[in-house]
Amino acid sequence: MKKTTLVSLLVAGLLISPAVLAQHVQADQVSRTTTEETVTPPATSSEVTETVTSTQGDNKETVQPAKVEEVSETNRPTTSPTAPTTELQEEPASSPAVVSAPTVESTLANQSSPAPATPAVRSQEVSATPKVTQGDLAKITGATVTDQDREKEVTVTEAVNQLLNWASTKENQVGSTDKDRLAFAKSLGMVKEGVEGSAPVTNLTSMVDVAKQLRAAYRADKKTPLFLNGKAQPIFPFTPGDDPEHYSYDKSDIVRYIVYVETDYDTDGDGKPDLVKTFVQVPKAAVNGDYKAATIFEASPYVTGTTEERTLEGIGLKEGGNFDMAKLYEKPAKRQATKTVTTEEVAKATNPKDWYYVNPRESSEDYTHYDYENLNWYNYFLVRGYAVVTSSGLGSKGSDGINTTGSDLEVAAYKNIVEWLNGKRKAYSDKTSNHEVKADWSNGNVAMTGLSWAGTTTFGVASTGVEGLKTIVPAAGIASWYDHFNSQGSPLDTGASNDLSWLSVYTSGRILDKEDWDKVKDYYAAYITKLNELQHKDGHNYNEEYAKRDYTLNAANLKAAPLIIQGLNDDNVKPKHFELMLEAYKKAGIDAKVLLHQGNHVYPSTRWSGTEVAGRAFNDLMNLWYSHYLYGIENGIENLPQVTAQDNLDPSKWRRFDKWDTNNAISARIYSKREDVTVTGDYYGTGNNWTTRNQDAAFHSSEVAASYAAPVDQDVTIKGHIPVHFSAAFVKGDKNHAHVSATLMDVSDEDFDVVKEEITYDKDGYSTRTLDKETIDETGYWNGSNLETLPLKRYKTHKVKSVVIARGWMNLANPASRYDSASSSHSIDLKENEYHDYTMYLQPNLYTVKKGHRLVLSLHTYDPDYIYFADPYEVTFKTDSISATIPIVENSRSLLFRYQPSEKDTEYASLADRILPIATIQPKVDPEQDPSPVDQAEKPIVPSNPMTPTNPAASEIPQKPSHGRDLMDFRKEQKEETAQELAQRADKDKIEASSQPSLPKTGQATSPWTLFGFLGLMLTSLLSLGKAHKDE
Predict the structure, then answer these.
(1) pTM across the whole model
(2) Which pLDDT value is given to residue 252?
(3) Which has the closest alpha carbon to 752: 604, 650, 841, 663?
(4) 890 neighbors 94 (Cβ within 8 angstroms)
């Protein structure tokens, strides 16, 4: 070759080098985003417990796997410990096996894809399986592979990345990081749970089979839900709806619109059946007719906007006027549709500001609140093909009617929405035109879910037996409104907060539209006045108004399969409600499932974070549940044991029980040297600090508490509600408020770790309740599609010396009251010093007490954490009448609870021992399990560390709780979490914007000039080369 040719080639190479360099820079950018992700927690966060580093060659995770304990209870009838039954020859349930992975996996069969071979984990040596190479993988995906890499062994992460990218049609459709893509692969069943990304591939054939199904689903002419591994997969794209200025039907992959469902009743007295505003979100493919979608329905009076007020005075109205409750049940003639319009027509005409708007009443200087507040709570399900429907029902913004706080009328309106979804009810495009719109995209199958009131409505609607409601998933739902406001004749709050009406006032969102509110406000004020009168006409007894709101009465109608979720630390909607629901379903012959977590009044997952249940993401569990009950996928989820519960001592541990009921119990007997004990409600006058009442009673009695302790000589798990029996007399004071309460506590002289709600009080008696979580993995809660991956969180434990296990409350005027709400219908006229027999029921719990601790039972007058009475009164309990039946997992036994005198009670030590009347105690004491009562009486239990607190001066003790608790704390926490998250994200965006690295312009991935420059340089090079040949 001549010298001129070499020079030409060199010049051409130099000319083309900028384009090549641009491609290398661009490739470097892509490499940094697709092959490595390092998530480092901010320096300001003290809760993050791990740093996740994921590379293409090694997907490392330090999260400890959940521990799942399968408990097989003996559940033997409660008998005397002296005669243990031998019907079941099996190991005691006190020491069940603990495994490192959820056993539910064995019941969740993959019905839609081939069962993959068990892949190797990092530590396994697989000699029989042929090595899978880069060349093998490239034959399938068409990826380019060099000769040098062709024989290189493929890791799981490399195979997942190539196969998912091969299946996809859009960037980030299958995840933006290795970690997300591996999570997707595990969801699909392409990779087995527990396999590390750095493990070698051992099941390429089954991985490819799954990838082919995913590829076909992405490219199908008709987009339908893809069910693999027993559940719906995230193949639908997501478009947000919280930007009204830029949202449009044509550009959105999620169709959103409003309809108005017609009800049967006229609760606002305008002569027409009420219309309830209903918000629909559904993948566009369903609206286009590609498939029929199942619906997840949240019926929540909160989400369209609240007033933040609790009384008529708070919203500018006065009590008064006459109101006939019968008018609420009038059924006017139905509207006649003038035409039928399509879903597409309605959706295109709907103003996005009808579902996303500022509520000034819920906003503050530091926080702007938008409704619908649940707009983004169910995005996980939208991208899997479900529809999501929301309504706040009667009396809410945009709806007709008035809110009636859980009544049969409220339930009927929500039932009507289910009927619209299955084609048996009319809805209209607006409130005036009478243009009917059908749910033509719906397959008629509906699940209801939600927290608190939204959990309550699920049970209410289920109790109607409405067709199409296939399942309910209530979280902290109310089963009977009587037991939300009262307990066995005793109120659980004072003032307006004990009125059914306050929640109606709080959720009367029609006030947000002044013109609409003016039409109904006087009528509404008269209704609230009448409701208050009827609710309290029998004091705090159960009556007709509560019966309208007692869903357990209609157990015979129940058909929808339930998964009942309850926080065991919930002091708002208490655990008794899940037991009432469970009992109602038992009467209906339906196998209800229960999920018990250690949280308080919360839904397990939120918009901002997620949690796991026995090693499985909560939303993943819900996906399995809904896939089965709404789409008929046979995945075995219905075979879950009846109870799945999070451990109170170790929140990473979950336990499963085949049933909630147990026949085993601790028979608790009481011993004191005195035949009776008197307690007073005069906290201030006796110098007892009511804010530390339980901590004090854990170690000693006082004027306000009679405390009894029993040592625990083996681990014991309490499971169920606790009946406490006693004979008591009202001694003196105001007999119209003769309330008593009891507390069962776990007590130790040494600190121990437990999940519990922390309660603090300010100087005025206001309480703040917190239950902390820790971040387990900042990017551990995968959502799929183009949704954001969220932090994975778990409840934290705290070190304490005492914790309340269960509480109960009762009115001495209700001796006939039992566990069911209706049994509290009648009260007696109390007489001083007249004894009656009572059974008080402490709230159910699932709680493990460790060996070496003490169980402490304390008796009091009223509970100042809930109510306050200015006039002190006294109650006397007969010692020998006090007993308790504490349901447990382990074998039945007896425990003797001994009176704990205070340091001031110097007389007690000198009193003579009494002989315990054993004959009146059932079951009898087993001498092999407990020493004789006489021997025990000679050895009084004295804690090695009495922990007697020093009472503050009387002037320092809050005289009364100004507002013992706020039932809307959970909503405040939701808003605070949202405000904090949005502020953090705004700060993060600013930091990222200011720290973007500057790259050479030739490396800009999106610049079109790179291509033009490349072509120009190529042409110049070729011309130069041609000229060189001519010169030759």
Answers:
(1) 0.82
(2) 98
(3) 650
(4) yes
